[in-house]
Design goal:
The complex is a heterodimer of chains A (266) and B (288). Chain A has 14 helices and 1 strand. Chain A is mainly α and 266 residues long. Chain A folds into 2 domains: 46 residues, no CATH class; 208 residues, Orthogonal Bundle (MetI-like fold), CATH 1.10.3720. Chain A starts with 6 loop residues before the first helix and ends with a helix. The model of chain A has no long low-confidence stretch (mean pLDDT 83). Chain B has 288 residues and is mainly alpha-helical. Chain B has a single domain, classed as MetI-like (MetI-like fold, Orthogonal Bundle). Chain B has a two-stranded antiparallel sheet. The two termini of chain B are 20 Å apart. Classes of the chains: A mainly alpha (266), B mainly alpha (288). At the A-B interface, helix 1, helix 4, strand 1, helix 5 and helix 6 of A face strand 1, helix 1, helix 3, helix 4 and helix 5 of B. Strand 1 of chain A pairs parallel with strand 1 of chain B, so a sheet runs across the interface.
């Protein structure tokens, strides 16, 4: 007998959802129920964990901090990577290949290596504990990735497009903004997705570069383990809330992601 | 391929990227290099030590052990995630409404902050309150990942497979969807078996995206820190202390800046060399 084709993806998705279900279900339980009894779904359904998070500024500010630096990083990475990727895809210049390779090596740098020097560098320039510090630090791996993917997309656009526009009297700037950027909009979407993703999930640098004012939500979560015993319900609720922005972003790009992958470098 | 024109002014276009990345890469790297050749007794007084720290790290059993653990971990997850990801991508629907549903659900683990992944697996696998822990113990195995090295490894590997296989699936799926239908029709006319369709049509078309998948998974698993740190804390004992965890222990835990910096440089160099080897090997295969 042949196994039906949908079986493999279905089983895989079930495997993916199981830990997430456990987290979500735990977020609706009281700490007593989590530690005292073992139940597959919440027996005493409670929203107390979520209410705590939405009413305590030290909790909900974590979300704003995270979203602030992730947004800043995504915009910054994409806007500087666009002209650079254009240069790599269209022109030959002194040291271009070495430069491209050097950029990519930064994607291979372990964040653990840079944690301490980053702390000293950003303290020295007075940016420690600001979202700007984290947004800049995440450029280390997001800019190389953005340049790499965008270069792939741009190489797929025929050069005649540029030449026709210049003949028609477009200046470089006007051509780039009016014609070129709309042409590779799908690619920009994919790159923004990746920048958002890697900045949102990274914690080691984000945690090292902040202390109070700009603390990311993911770092706030580690607090529950140390203070006031072990508030697992609260931890689970905070974790559940960190999944939502990601899910929202995926839903947004769902139709482009496969196409984008296929068109671009990856 | 586009033939490129020589234009040195293109440097102006890459300048912002170079400045930003250099600020983030060169200054910290120089700091690391500085520490790696000096000894300090506090008060910002430094002495030049030459290659002493490098010799110390390269000869230390602790570093060898972490490196071996790291290599085994990366090897295991590559051997599981790459074939599994390809298999799932092959069995996914080609078109229709289920494609988006599959893609969205599969991409979900990729967008969860890494410490949440660790925390989630911690409460999922705990033998007393976790679903997975209960299930495994219910099947008659004695399982407690906080105390048994083997169980800790099993949980860490399972977590990484859960976390990252989807990336391979997405990439492989993108490679597959770029194959024109005509190829499959031709194969059907020739009476090709499923295996030869895979071997001669699908695999060659996926080669490029698979190269990227292997490289990304290799680099990222080699740098893994947050997830195992939150899940097991590197324990029990040192059994899941991978290179990054060890490095942070030395640098921030014991504040041995010299050895930590030397280790950082060796670590970075290993990733660079191995990535380069992977890349050349896979590219050479492509040329043949």
């Amino acid at each position: 007998m042949k196994t039906p084709k949908w079986l493999v993806p279905t089983l895989y998705i079930l495997f993916l959802l199981l830990p997430i279900y456990w987290l979500v279900s735990m977020s609706f339980k009281t700490t007593n129920e989590i530690l005292g009894t073992f139940s597959l779904w919440p027996q005493e359904f409670t929203l107390a964990n979520y209410i705590t998070i939405f009413t305590d500024p030290t909790w909900y500010n974590g979300y704003f901090n995270s979203l602030t630096y992730v947004g800043m990083n995504t915009l910054l990475s994409v806007s500087v990577a666009l002209p650079a990727a254009y240069a790599f895809s269209r022109y030959r210049f002194l040291g271009d290949k070495h430069l491209f390779f050097w950029l990519l090596t930064n994607r291979m740098a372990p964040p653990a290596v840079f944690a301490l020097p980053f702390f000293q560098l950003y303290s020295a320039v007075g940016l420690f504990d600001t979202p700007i510090a984290v947004a800049l630090a995440h450029c280390l791996f997001n800019i190389p990735l953005a340049v790499w993917i965008l270069e792939g997309f741009m190489s797929g656009v025929p050069k005649e497009l540029d030449e026709t526009a210049y003949v028609d009297g477009y200046s470089f700037g006007r051509f780039f903004i009016r014609i070129f950027i709309p042409t590779i909009a799908a690619g920009i979407g994919v790159v923004m997705f990746f920048c958002f993703m890697f900045s949102w999930v990274e914690l080691l640098l984000a945690k090292t570069l902040t202390s109070v004012a700009a603390k990311p939500i993911a770092a706030t979560m580690t607090r529950t383990a140390s203070t006031a015993g072990y508030e697992l319900g609260l931890l689970a609720a905070a974790g559940t809330l960190t999944i939502i922005p990601g899910a929202f972003v995926i839903w947004f790009v769902r139709n482009h992601i496969a196409k984008g992958f296929a068109l671009g470098r990856v | 391929m586009i033939d490129k024109t020589v234009n040195q002014r293109a440097w102006f276009l890459v300048l912002p990227v170079v400045v930003l990345v250099a600020f983030n890469a060169l200054i910290p790297l120089m700091t690391v290099v500085n520490y790696s050749v000096q000894e300090t007794f506090g008060n910002n007084v430094f002495f030049f030590e030459g290659v002493k720290w490098f010799e110390q790290i390269l000869n230390s059993e602790r570093f060898h052990a972490s490196l071996l653990r790291q290599l085994s971990f990366t090897g295991i997850i590559l051997l599981i995630e790459i074939p599994l990801g390809v298999a799932i991508a092959l069995s996914m629907p080609k078109k229709g409404p289920w494609v988006s549903v599959c893609l969205v659900l599969m991409a979900l683990p990729l967008l969860i902050p890494w410490n949440v992944v660790g925390a989630m697996w911690n409460i999922f696998a705990l033998p007393d309150i976790g679903l997975l822990g209960r299930m495994i113990n219910g099947m008659g195995f004695d399982y407690n990942f906080t105390q048994q090295p083997l169980a800790a490894w099993f949980t860490t590997v399972l977590m990484d497979v859960w976390h990252w296989t989807s990336l391979v699936v997405l990439l492989a799926y993108a490679g597959l969807s770029s194959i024109p239908d005509a190829y499959y029709q031709a194969a059907r006319i020739d009476g090709a078996s499923a295996w030869s369709v895979f071997r001669f049509i699908q695999l060659p078309k996926m080669k490029r995206v698979l190269t990227i998948a292997v490289l990304l998974r290799f680099m990222d698993s080699f740098m893994i820190y947050t997830e195992p740190f939150v899940l097991t804390g590197g324990g029990p004992g040192n059994t899941t202390t991978f290179l990054s965890i060890d490095l942070v222990k030395i640098a921030l835990g014991q504040f041995d800046l010299g050895p930590a910096a030397a280790m950082s440089l060796i670590y970075f160099l290993i990733i660079l060399v191995l990535s380069w080897i992977f890349y050349t090997l896979m590219m050479r295969n492509e040329e043949q």
